[in-house]
Specification:
single chain; GMP Synthetase, Chain A, domain 3; Rossmann fold; alpha/beta; binds guanosine-5'-triphosphate
């Protein structure tokens, strides 16, 4: 006979993770999922499209919508990214605002806070990077933000060290509406393997190249072939805007592109669990930022 305590209801809901560029949104989504689903770099605006990371906490499935950082857009690509960020909050059961607690109320934060104040959804405040912050400052910051927005709860976490992440995950799980899970139990992301693979190559551009170059580049999958020997052959195009950028991506004697390829290949192989042959081609396309087809390929809406 079943007594009351053995009846467990499942929960499922969407949490929109928003914040300024570099707040640590992608790192936090990865920490909540427990595996890397979003690429991370020290450069701002690494995340270009909405990405759903899927975390399971007890009987709850959390659909974590990792959004691009919200900032004042300048280029067309910027506008598409900011639109993707706010679109990511539509239909969310809860909005989680991630703040770089060390940076505090600087930059884009006040504008985001103001925009959030009028939203009707439930809202959580997450002060991130507590590992590099002074405690007293954290409390003052939490007070200031709570005075501006009706946050239901405030959390202090370090997405990097994992400090506070378990508590946050449990609270998010409890806040989700009762209902069936949307994804199979073992699925960690809604991104296709192809998109993830091109993201992993793009991550290497951010990690291995300096200054503005990564922002001027996009990756397109040209060919994806599952070979009979169990390996996967992947051809990706790195599209840049100028010849001079192509030269930088290639490096002296092709050294840089080889290093990018080696690191990306290892990461993609870990993702797919299969040996990978990665072929990278660099192509110059001066106005790719205005090319509609390249937007949908990376999951962004083209904005006029
Ligand atoms: N010390 C510390 N650094 C962190 C923490 N969380 C993230 N970072 C670092 O902050 C930087 C930005 O992290 P991301 O997760 O890419 O930030 P994001 O908010 O997704 O950035 P965008 O893609 O620009 O929107 C990276 O260098 C992270 O390693 C943390 O808890 N502590």
């Amino acid at each position: 006979m079943m007594d009351e305590t053995t009846i467990e209801i499942t929960r499922c809901g969407a949490v929109a993770v928003v914040g300024a560029p570099n707040a640590g949104k992608s790192t936090l989504v990865n920490a909540l999922v427990g595996q890397k689903v979003a690429i991370v770099s020290a450069k701002v605006q690494t995340t270009r499209q909405r990405l759903v990371g899927i975390a399971v906490a007890g009987q709850a499935q959390l659909l974590l919508v990792d959004t691009p950082g919200i900032f004042r857009p300048r280029r067309r690509l910027d506008r598409a990214m900011v639109k993707a960020a706010w679109d990511g909050t539509d239909d969310a059961d809860l909005i989680a605002l991630v703040i770089d607690a060390k940076a505090g109320l600087k930059g884009e934060v006040p504008a985001i806070v103001e925009a959030l104040a009028n939203r009707r959804e439930r809202k959580y405040l997450i002060l991130n990077k507590v590992d590099i912050c002074v405690k007293e400052k954290l409390l003052v910051l939490a007070q200031e933000l709570n005075a501006r927005v009706a946050f239901e709860e405030t959390f202090f976490v370090s997405a990097s060290t994992g400090d506070g992440v378990a508590g946050l995950k449990a609270a998010l799980a409890a806040a989700m509406p009762a209902g069936p899970w949307h994804y199979p139990e073992d699925q960690l992301s809604d991104a296709t393997t192809r998109l993830m693979a091109s993201e992993l190559t793009r991550e290497q551009l951010y990690l291995q190249l300096h200054a503005e170059l990564p922002y001027s580049a996009t990756i397109e999958t040209e060919k994806w072939e599952e070979r009979r020997d169990g390996s996967t052959a992947i051809h990706q195009q790195i599209i840049v805007e100028r010849d001079s950028q192509k030269a930088i991506v290639l490096g002296k004697g092709g050294l840089r592109i080889r290093e990018i390829g080696a690191a990306a290949r290892a990461a993609i192989s870990e993702l797919t669990g299969r040996p990978v042959h990665l072929f990278l081609h660099v192509k110059v396309k001066p106005d790719w930022g205005d090319d509609r087809s390249l937007y949908s390929a990376v999951g962004l809406d083209f904005v006029d």
